[in-house]
Specification:
Elements (H helix, E strand, L loop, with lengths): L2 H54 L2 H11 L4 H30 L3 H5 L1 H15 L3 H6 L3 H22 L8 H23 L10 H21 L5 H9 L4 H34 L2 H24 L1 H9 L6 H20 L2 H4 L5 H24 L5 H25 L1 H5 L6
Length: 414
């Protein structure tokens, strides 16, 4: 089995485990909490997603690229690891200060402060897992094992301990416990097996690391405007209402779609930097889109039954939202693959960022119009997000077409 196939296999093993754990826990959690509290959880999880993006600061891409370049230089890898870890801890501290100050000014943050703090702690701990090291070294086995370990610990504790809506705090807390256990194990592996250790780095070196990662961060934070912001907006407009829970539950399917597509893009990113095999990338997208479309068609036809089975009869209101999210899910794989994995090897990574920035401008402009016209609703947010995703993907494809000569000139590996 080739390195690309092996890495993709391990990432899909992790995704399969996530699916199974999700199928086991999400129906249980949604039924225990009910739509309103489940909506509060979704509100806090959306903030947690932003916390993760800010703390990571795009290092999952920029640091992975650096690790790929210096794969045989253990000293340089140690410096990258040390600098990135220091920067992430610093960002986490700044975020906690900002969250504490915001709780005195914004009612919804004050009402959910404890839950938000737990998700901030979880985001900080998750960011300390050096996935970029193993991705850059194209050793996805460790990532898969640690992901399954965290989920297994979380699922076990959820079923044993979560028994009432008041225990909603257990959801992030049990993930925190799993993350702490896995961090200890991963850092032991880095030190003993990878010979990567904490080492002293200069302020100039850390600033350089931040500058290199800034474009990737801007792209990821911009795309989050239409990935996670919708839940936050609904949480502020309809605090404690079932509609937030309906959107949160339907959005779980979009999240599962992203989890299903990201392993391919994650494994192709270092592979494309090394081989520039565009024919294999395109062939993979075309082949995988066929089963994706079939699955999404099934979801569209039987959305009522799927939502009832997944979340309970109280969540039938999620069915229509699921149908409106299906176009977004259909675009996920090509958007991922034609982004950084396709554009970085030909020196056009900036267009991956630009595509997201233009889509974000569209999203923000659309949100302003919805607010002015009093038309903010879960369905309208889904429609607006679909338009933004189409714009982003169109720009990336247009960039590849405009630079097709560069693609033809790249070396073939088969």
């Amino acid at each position: 089995m080739g390195k690309l196939a092996k890495n993709t296999f391990f990432l899909y093993a992790l995704t399969a485990a996530n699916y199974l754990f999700g199928l086991a826990t999400i129906p249980y959690i949604s039924r225990i909490l009910g739509p309103s509290i489940f909506g509060n959880l979704g509100f806090a999880m959306a903030f947690g997603a932003y916390f993760s993006l800010i703390i990571d600061f795009g290092f999952i891409l920029s640091a992975t690229k650096k690790v790929t370049m210096f794969a045989d230089d253990k000293l340089e890898l140690s410096k990258i690891f040390s600098a990135v870890t220091f920067i992430k801890l610093s960002f986490a501290l700044l975020l906690f200060i900002a969250l504490a100050v915001s709780s005195y000014m914004i009612t919804e943050i004050a009402n959910n402060f404890a839950l938000l703090t737990l998700f901030l702690i979880l985001s900080a701990l998750t960011s300390l897992l050096p996935d970029y090291i193993y991705m850059g070294l194209e050793n996805m086995k460790i990532i898969a094992i640690r992901g399954v370990a965290i989920k297994a610990i979380f699922v076990s504790l959820i079923f044993v301990c979560l028994k009432s809506p008041e225990q909603v705090y257990f959801v992030p807390l049990f993930q925190i416990i799993g993350s702490i256990i896995v961090i200890i194990w991963i850092y032991f592996d880095l030190h003993k097996n990878q010979n990567i250790k904490f080492t002293k780095t200069t302020l100039r070196y850390r600033i350089t690391i931040i500058k290199d990662s800034a474009p990737y961060f801007l792209s990821r934070i911009a795309s989050s405007v239409y990935n996670f912001c919708n839940t936050i907006i609904l949480g502020f407009i309809y605090p404690g209402k079932a509609v937030v829970g309906y959107y949160t539950s339907a959005d779980k399917f979009r999240s599962l779609a992203q989890q299903g597509c990201s392993p391919v893009a994650d494994s192709f990113y270092p592979y494309m930097i090394r081989t520039k095999d565009y024919k294999k990338l395109l062939r993979t997208v075309l082949i995988l889109e066929i089963p994706i479309i079939i699955i999404l068609a099934i979801c569209f036809i039987w959305s009522d039954e799927i939502c009832i089975i997944a979340f309970g009869k109280e969540y039938l209101g999620s069915s229509e939202l699921l149908r409106w999210m299906i176009p977004i899910m259909a675009l996920t794989l090509p958007q991922y693959m034609f982004g950084f994995p396709a554009l970085t090897p030909i020196g056009k990574a900036k267009w991956a960022n630009i595509s997201v920035e233009i889509a974000t401008v569209n999203q923000i402009g659309g949100l302003i119009i919805l607010f002015i016209t009093g038309s903010v609703s879960a369905i309208n947010l889904c429609i607006l997000t679909t338009i933004s995703e189409v714009i982003c993907l169109s720009i990336r494809i247009a960039t590849l077409v405009a630079n097709k000569k560069l693609l033809k000139n790249e070396p073939k590996t088969f």
